[in-house]
Amino acid sequence: MPSPRKICLILLTLLAAVLAAIAFHWIHLTALLGSGYMAETLCSGLIVSARDRESIFAEELSGPGYELLGLFQADIDDQGKQVTASAYGLWPRTAVYRDGLGCTLAIGRTVSELRAEAANLFTPTEPLDQNALWPEGEGVELENLPNDFDNDALKAAIDAIFTESDPAHPRQTRALVVVHKGRIVGERYAPGFDRTTPLLGWSMSKAATNALVALRVMDGAVATSDAKLLPEWRGEGDARAAITLDQLLRMTSGLGFEEGYGSNTSDVAQMLFAKGDAAGFAAAKSLVAAPGTLWHYASGSSNIIALILRHSFADERSYLRFPHDRLFAPLGMRSAVLVPDASGTFISSSLMYASARDWARLALLFAQGGVWQGKQLLPLDWVTYSLTPTPEAPAKDYAAHFWLKLPESRELSLAEDAYYMLGFDQQVAAIIPSRDLIIVRLGLTRRGGAWDHARDLAPIVRAFPPTAPQP
Question: Residue 181: how many CB atoms within 10 A of its CB?
Answer without folding.
Answer: 13
